[in-house]
Amino acid sequence: MKKFIPLLLNAALLLFPSMVQASWVEVIGKSYIENDDIEQARKNAIDDALLNADFQYGVHVTNQYEIVDGKLVNASTATDQRTKENTDFELANENTHDDELTIELRVFVDGLTQNRAPRSLYKNQVLVPETVVLYPQQLSYGQINHFGSSISDKLSRFIDKNSKTAYSASYPHDKLDFIPSKLSPNNERLPQWLGVKTESQYVLIPELIDASSEQKSSFGLFSSTNRQFLLKLSLYHSISGERVWQKSYSTQAEWEFARNQIITTTTNLFWSSEYGEKVSRVLQQAARDLGRFVSHRSLMGQIIAKKKNQLLLNIGRKNGLNVNDSLKIILKRDLPDRLQAIRLIADSSEAKVIVKQITEDTALVEWLDHSKVENIQIGDIAIAR
User: Fold this and answer.
1) pLDDT tens digits for 282-340?
2) Domain 299-384 is found in CATH 2.40.10.410
3) What backbone torsions phi and psi does residue 60 show, to the nearest 5 degrees?
4) Spelled out in words, what is the top-level CATH class assigned to the domain 16-114?
5) What would the pLDDT profile of 100-133 be if each residue is shown by its tens digit?
6) Could you give the angle at the alpha carbon of 123 between the alpha carbons of 121 and 127, nearest 5°?
7) For helices 274-295 and 38-57, angle between their N-to-C axes, nearest 10 degrees
8) Where is 43: in which H helix or E strand?
9) How far apart are the first and last CA of the chain?
10) Cys-Cys crosslink for 29: which of 48, 251, 344, 351, Cβ 3.0 to 4.6 Å?
């Protein structure tokens, strides 16, 4: 009887390979600590690590966890939206260096998850124009030049560096003639127009809310100058025109330069100062947050040309598309409401198309069932998941 045990064991391993493939893997997440809020930084770093687990190991994460006294409790993830399987994760290590928190998570990856390919890294283009400076008179102290364009340029570079699912269309010297807070809720045409003009899936509007300076003194004598930095980011989807994400970031630091010293923010002199370094950290964190938000959203392109059963899309190789990728078609209708504002109505379609040819900016797709293509029009939406 004993001689059959190894045979039965080998047969079981062949039938259930996931039994031997299950293992713990380690993933890294990072976040800057803003305003000494270590708890929020820890949460951001954990979310970043879980997103990396998704990319690296195919753990399609819907994270649920609590942080109590700096420790993870009730930590588990849904590894697949269809099966709702759960897996555990735990905090392995935590380290802080120069206000940056690095988290190392151990995530349990079962055999089924390991055999599942990581999801496709489709990338959305984000338009980043020149940052709106709400109170330019605040920049007169220190005679700061080109701050709005420098913020946008730096932010664009961090988006390109840190995000796996987004990249920037950087226009740091193109100023938009509107402020999001003054944009009518019913006026969604401007983000749509910008998206069409630049073929971007998102439009990011940065606003510098506060760059004021305050002189500090001790014993009645001037000692130092402290400068604020408050930036608000508003992200709009270019197809619907709606605002989908908004967040503010703030920091402050000593202003090291003389009042009458002209400071050009395109130089290393500014960015290597204490204030410049803190602003840079804020922008890097903002880029991480934006990339994490975009990573949970599907890539959406639009049909820009149509001929029989062939459709041309405004997304291509730079968005991560490949030949033979399958996309779903959504029919778009503009519906005027009672205030004569145009509302976007999306109707699901059974149409699925296959990428046949591709360039950097476009994709030629084809659907063999030509009889159902008649309802598809220029401007309709193609979704890559």
Assistant:
1) 999 999 999 989 988 889 999 999 988 889 999 999 999 999 999 998 887 777 666 56
2) yes
3) -75, 95
4) alpha beta
5) 889 888 887 765 444 445 556 899 999 999 999 9
6) 165
7) 50
8) helix 38-57
9) 52
10) 48
